Amino acid sequence: MRIQANHVFFSYDRLPVLTDINLDIREGTLTVLCGVTGSGKSTLLRLLSGLAEPAAGTILLDGGQAAAGNVSMVFQQPETQLFAGSVHQELEYGLAERGVPGPQRLELIRSALARVGLPYDEFGGRSPFLLSGGEKRRLCIAAAIASLPGLLVLDEPTAGLDPQAAGSLLELLHGLRRSGLTLVIGTHDLDSFLPIADEAIVMSQGAVHYSGPASTLSADPLVLTGAGLEPPAYSRLGHRLRQRGLLAELPDSLDSLLAALAEQPLPAPPEEAPPASVQIPRLSWSGGENLLPAKGNMAGRSSAATDIQTASARKPWQRLDPRVKWLGMVLGTLAVLGMQALLPLLLASGLITGLMLSARIPWQRTIRFFRPFLLMFLFLWLLSALTWSSPDYKLGPVGLSLAGMERGGLNVLRFLLLVALGFLFTETTTGAPLREALEWGIAPLKKLGIRTRNWSLAVSVTLQFVPWILDKLAQLQLALNSRGRKARGMARYTPRQVALLIVPLLILVIGMGDELATAVESRGYDPTKERTPAYLLSWQNRDTLVMLCILLAAALLWTVSRFS
Ligand SMILES: Nc1ncnc2c1ncn2[C@@H]1O[C@H](COP(=O)(O)OP(=O)(O)OP(=O)(O)O)[C@@H](O)[C@H]1O
Question: Which ranges carry the ABC transporter domain (predicted)?
């Protein structure tokens, strides 16, 4: 399948991530997509797979738009997205979603499993969760190729695998390429993938730095260093040996380097040469140019990163002392909980909306956060309006009371405001300041023998867990979409779909909890010991001003709720 990207642009929450991408990937080729972290590889892969839409420009597959089943994507660490009871069911899910009729599925599943080296008779009935890491990765590739796509997109396919499993996965991908499948692989592992690639795309700061034959990257390492990447080890060694006249041709893989060295043994080092362990010369190109990432380019990146940090530090919300935000959160919560009438609740809604706008939280993120709550609150509101005796309205056998609707509406609004306060707080405060301020606030309780550090750690971890879970949920949704699931709106939340999201999510949450516990233990965490603060609290005049505003607003809300 031929892929053409024409003047493609993409942004996350108004942050430009891809700029003017133009590509033409030939059918039946294996293309490596590389670039430093954050250069936009994963984003570009999602666009090529049709899982995200470009903000501008077009992506054409075989000259037209992508059709269902045409493209499959295998995400980073895809085994975290397994959910079915057996290997057979895992593959059948994607085929069913893509509308493949039942009788044809078994043959496709058998063939896909055979292609990835997991014979159906041996693996079909096994639980995906009990396979080895390398087998799980193969299973995910089988699930992706079962529908016979024209293009297979993989993001970091060898990440987290041991060298042996990574080596055999590489063989598998090479085999798929030989069978005529078009592959685009995003990776940092150029040593492994460059030798088997036909084409290469090098990304730098959201733009295409190089697009062309993969062999050029091995022959001219400056292309990679110019994008902040290190050339493969075989290429660096080959270049150095060639400079010294010890090699006739530049190698295009580790194997060819070894073969060339076997034909032409290296001369013995001169007697007076110092032992390698004492003086290890740095590999350098002619003219002494260092192989480390090009300085100009990296300096550009780090200054860009500093600019972003400074810009975010300039945001007034980020500069506020976290104790002021805790005060606002606690007073706001108390004020909202004490409100019984509509007027003060509306006043508080206006105030919190104003604060959220001033915090400049991207609206897409806000919508994503509130959507599940809105559905739940709507349901609770309707539930509280239900009545069997003297209903004001009748919907068939169900009666609704006006007073119940009013009471339920006020409660729902109150909960929504509490959720909004928490959202505002966690979106504008990172973990360390949040914990330091809380610890400062509850420090007096230490005198009563209470372990306040345990409390503050628990609160900050809990608050930070919510955005983490939401992000994982979005990733799982995307992974289901990549298997052919395209449903939007309410159809996304059928009981089956919810189950397919909940199983891997629970496993991820348990895994995360386990990792956290191990990390805390391995750092020798002892709540009784003093520790160096991760964030230094510093109270400024502006904090006093904001504190006065908070006290005034709380007094105003309290007065209005008393007299309405
Ligand atoms: N969901 C998101 N919301 C906001 N920004 C995002 C999101 N996903 C990625 N980004 C940002 O977009 C930029 C490109 O990210 P992307 O994941 O495409 O990079 P990458 O080259 O694949 O990085 P890596 O090699 O670390 O996986 C980064 O600056 C990242 O912070």
Answer: 3-230
